[in-house]
Every structure is written in C-alpha cells, then in structure tokens.
Amino acid sequence: MSISEMNPFSLEGEVALVTGATRGIGRACAAALGSAGAAVALGCRDLEAGTALAKELQEGGVNAMAVHMDMLSLASIEQAISAVESDLGPLSVLVNNAGLSHPAPAMNVTEADYDSMFDLNVKGAFFASQAAARKMAARARGSIINIASQAGLVALDGEPVYCMTKAAMIHMTQCLAVEWARHHIRVNAVAPTFIRTDSTKGWLEDEKSLNSLLARIPLRKIGEPENVAEPVVFLASEAAALITGATLKIDGGWTAV
C-alpha cells in the first residue's frame, strides 16, 4: 500500500513549484507543502531571498530549492521548470501564486498598471501552467492550483483591474481543467479574502479600514497565510482526486452575503 493510499493528504514523493514563494501566501504554501512531504521549489525573482527560505525549509527537514523565475518571461518560466525537474524530479504540483495589484479608481488606471497586472496575474499564470502541463501530460498526472481572490467573484471598489485579472484566473482554471482532464491533470483555484501579508499591512493597521472589512465578513476574521496554504495542500493531494475546475472560497463568508 502506497503512502497516498494510507494517508490521502500526504504529499510524499511529490515535487511542487510555488511561484512568488518568498513572502506571504506563497511562503506559507511552500512551507505547508513541504510539511506534507513534498519536495518544494521556490520560484522567485529575488534569488537571494529564495535561497534563504530554501535553507530555512531544509533545516526543518524539507527538500527545498530556490529557482530564479521571471513570470514575465516565457524563457525564464521554462528554464525554471527544467531546473526543478533536473534537481528535484518530475514536477507534479504547481501553485500559481505570483501576482500584484495597483489599486486605483477605474478613471485613474494607467495603461502601464493595467498591463502589468494582466501580464503577471493572468499571462504569467497561464504560461507557467502551460509549461508545467506539458511535463505533467507526458506522465499523465499533475495538480495545478491558482491563487485567485474573492476579488474575482465580487467587485471591490477602487480595484477594478485587479478584480478583472482574478476573474480571468478563475475562468482560466475552469478552461484548463476541462481541456487537461484527459491528461489526468487537475486544475483548481482558491479565492481568499483579505489575508495578513505585507501587501495588506497598511489596510489592516488602520482601525477604520479593519472594522469596515470585518463588518463585511460573516466570520469576523481576517485570514492568515496558513488559512490559504492548508487548502492548497488539500487540493494538491489525492484527497482531492475527483476535484477539478473548482474555486474554493476562503473568504469567511464574504461572497455568501
């Protein structure tokens, strides 16, 4: 009996790549995947920060490596995945976490900000998925998890383009899930609410903003990165073997209201 049959939540023997892995949700996902038994590659622009995190994970018993990965360069994406397979083995899990937001009212959005959000949040995730799927399809197995957002399901005032990119990511998840099911590649997404990270620090340290957010969330809780990472581990595991094309809302009930 294999480890996955004894414990369907185990990721022993799996090789996972997390993009944007050095901070916040990406960092938590890398740590959680490693704790579940996966070998973990940290896709990052800042290789020094990635190397430091890889060392930290290694000290905790995780087989980890940092790999330079520019999500705006198709050549860099492909080179990173080749390096992961060369050093850790066949890639079986991809977590598309790299992303950014430039909050601005629709009338004030610049072309540069519009392009940068779509290039990273949508184009980068698509081509990373494509490069990973080509490897996974040859072995007829794999799991891709996209870090979307509740912003892809509801409108957030002042963040129209970010919302658009996350809605695109959610629909991309469904399209790829349908197309790649024949290759036994599962594609899912998670849609978190506001999570305590460096990018939300300013919002959450302002009492008025914090209270306004909490009033929108039925559970009256702001999420921690681990609240996203643990469902990602589930979606990567055999416990989710029949789940594909799904978007798991991690929003404290925000979108149910």
Intertermini distance? 45 Å
Mean pLDDT: 96
Q: What is the succession of H and E elements? A: HEHEHEHEHEHEHHHE
Largest sheet: 7 strands, parallel
Structural class: alpha/beta
Q: Whole-number radius of gyration?
A: 18 Å
Record field, number of beta strands: 7
Q: Strand order, main sheet: write it out.
A: 3-2-1-4-5-6-7
Q: Looking at this structure, what is the CATH superfamily?
A: NAD(P)-binding Rossmann-like Domain
Question: In CATH's first tier, which class applies?
Answer: Alpha Beta
Strand proportion, as a percent range, falls in: 5-15%
| The CATH topology | Rossmann fold
Low-confidence parts: none
Write the CATH architecture name. Answer: 3-Layer(aba) Sandwich
Which descriptor suits the 3D outline? globular
Describe this structure as you would to a colleague.
The protein has 257 residues and is an alpha/beta fold. It has a single domain, classed as NAD(P)-binding Rossmann-like Domain (Rossmann fold, 3-Layer(aba) Sandwich), CATH 3.40.50. The protein has 9 helices and 7 strands, in the order αβαβαβαβαβαβαααβ. It has a 7-stranded parallel sheet, with helices on both faces. The longest helix is centred in the middle third of the chain and has 29 residues. It starts with a helix and ends in a 7-residue tail after the last strand. 44% of the residues are buried. The model has no long low-confidence stretch (mean pLDDT 96).
